[in-house]
Amino acid sequence: MKAIWNNQIIAESNDTVVIENNHYFPHESINKSFFKPSNTRTTCPWKGEASYYTIAVNGEENPDAAWFYPEVSNLAKGIKNRVAFWKGVQVVSS
């Protein structure tokens, strides 16, 4: 799977986990040069507290377009150390 935004591959992996129709990529599969930490936090009742990244590619930013769970609940152990995308990020088969 590939995550693409602004015509740039920002993550690529053969090992994604799909939860609620979102592909969660291993943290080590993201191209960290495109990711900036965000102060945004949200809470999911069964996964825990999510943290976000702003994606920056070719001078454009997509605020809070990637999220991850630094600490996952027991129900969400499968997405520990994984990142998912939204806000126009395309996730496609390699």
UniProtKB/TrEMBL annotation:
<dbReference type="InterPro" id="IPR007361">
    <property type="entry name" value="DUF427"/>
</dbReference>
<feature type="domain" description="DUF427">
    <location>
        <begin position="1"/>
        <end position="87"/>
    </location>
</feature>
<dbReference type="Pfam" id="PF04248">
    <property type="entry name" value="NTP_transf_9"/>
</dbReference>
<protein>
    <submittedName>
        <fullName>DUF427 domain-containing protein</fullName>
    </submittedName>
</protein>
<dbReference type="InterPro" id="IPR038694">
    <property type="entry name" value="DUF427_sf"/>
</dbReference>
